[in-house]
Amino acid sequence: AAPAAPRPAAPPAAPAAPQVPVAVAPQFPRPAFLEARRRPVDDIPGLRKPPSPWMLFVEDLKEELKIAVPNGSGAAQQQYISQKWMELPPEHKQKYRDRAQGELLRYQREVAKWKKDRGLDPSTPLTAEMVGHVLALERAREPGHRAIPPGETVTPADTVRSIVGIDPDVADVSEDGVAAITKAMELFVAKLATDSAATARHHNRAALQYADVHETLQTKDALLFLREDFS
After folding, report:
1. Does CATH place domain 149-230 in 3.40.50.360?
2. CATH superfamily of the domain spanning 45-147
3. Of 16, 227, 45, which Cα lies nearest the Cα of 131?
4. Angle at the Cα of 64 (from 63 to 70), degrees rounded to 5?
5. If you placed Cys at 40, which of 20, 53, 125, 194 could pair as Cys (CB 3.0 to 4.6 Å)?
6. Confidence (pTM)
């Protein structure tokens, strides 16, 4: 039998396509002072916080304390107050607890009214950032409030420098650089606030909500880079 013809050699495999590195945005830790401003707060300027039963007892004992421990140290006064509280009958302690509960309800009503007067959702937890923004807007509406001239800024330069310093690729920023970044940031925030306020008015809302900002980010081409799904 005739020998089998040799099989033709397989063509060389095509070279693999080079792997294109995918650019990944660097993740920078959020500064602690910014995180703190997002935490819920229960301290609103102008509203008296509810005292605890202990604080109510100390207030009632103030005059007696001046006589019993006239020149005593803080530790001596604290020891005297603690001893008097321990000697207090249970029914008297309950009276202080009831008073404290009444003060808490009073404070909750005042907070609810504070939110309602400013168009805020009563169920929304207040943060230091939110309270600060509301108070800043109220100050801006006060008679005689001076508008910010075009060449000036209100954000502290040290704050901007600290935020810029989070980027490990930035060694230092000149004063002119900080001033330019600050002004650009404030103009951007003003633009975002203006567009978001227009969205709120479109929905017949007097108070700006997060939903208005979110909708503005979805509909304004210039703000697409702020969307979470932007790539």
Report:
1. no
2. High mobility group box domain (1.10.30.10)
3. 45
4. 90
5. 125
6. 0.48
